[in-house]
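Render this sequence as a predicted structure.
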Amino acid sequence: MGVELQNVLDALLPNPAFVTNERLDIIGWTRTASRIFADYASLPAWERNLAWLIFTDPEQRKIYVQRPASLPNLRTVRDNPIKKTREHLSHDYQKPSERK
């Protein structure tokens, strides 16, 4: 995770927040999120996956009480509108060093 994204997370303190990648791997979090949801730093990297935690960790099941109701809302990465938006924007975005 980049420094810019970590700065955004830091600015959100004291609120709980975490960032996932397209596979729902939790790649960044605030200290508050780590206290409320899970101690992400103590988990092996392969276990820091939101879907994995929601379905396999009994403590996470207590937090996500509407888990069965939300199952139909899960989408594949291919159908993810946020991912599509990011892909679209990434094609149009130029780094400052590339601007004329």
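Summary. The mean pLDDT is 76. The chain has six helices and two strands.
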